[in-house]
Amino acid sequence: MGSSTLHTAIEERKAMLLEVKTGLIERLNLYQTPEQIDDDTPLFGSGLKLDSVDATELLVLLDKNFGIRVNEGDDPSYMRSVNTLVSFIIDKKAQNALSGEPLAPQGSSATGDH
Predict the structure, then answer these.
(1) Around Cβ 50, how many Cβ atoms within 10 Å?
(2) 3-99 is classed in which CATH architecture?
(3) Domain ranges of the chain
(4) Radius of gyration of the chain (CA)
(5) Residues 16/86, Cβ–Cβ less than 8 Å
(6) Do residues 70 and 28 lie in contact, with contact meaning Cβ atoms separated by under 8 Å?
(7) Distance of CA 42 to the CA centre of its chain
(8) Quick one: average pLDDT of 1-19?
(9) DSSP code of 35?
(10) In this structure, are residues 84 and 78 in contact, taking their beta carbons and an 8 Å threshold?
(11) Which residue from 58, 68, 73 is spatially nearest to 102, judged by alpha carbons?
(12) pLDDT digits over 47-89, tens only?
């Protein structure tokens, strides 16, 4: 990977981290700023203290904000931290791009007519 490609990937990941943190704050009504949430903060347990209802909201966030639908076969470890969630989103987007499966535009509903 060339240095400009690596730089681009890093910048894209930073932007995605901010977008995910902002989405978590807005959808889950967290009283924090994106800067207060460490990339490796656990989403459940001692970290952000999310619960099973919040897990459902995470699935809605993935669908509505990123056009990603989670499959039953997907390893649930993507919900460990903000970083694992971002890696999951990046991987899913890459898979969808390779398969030609359309993604909903960010910020729009992926539940519209197909």
Answers:
(1) 18
(2) Orthogonal Bundle (1.10)
(3) 3-99
(4) 14
(5) yes
(6) no
(7) 14
(8) 89
(9) G
(10) yes
(11) 68
(12) 999 999 999 999 999 999 999 999 888 889 999 999 999 999 9
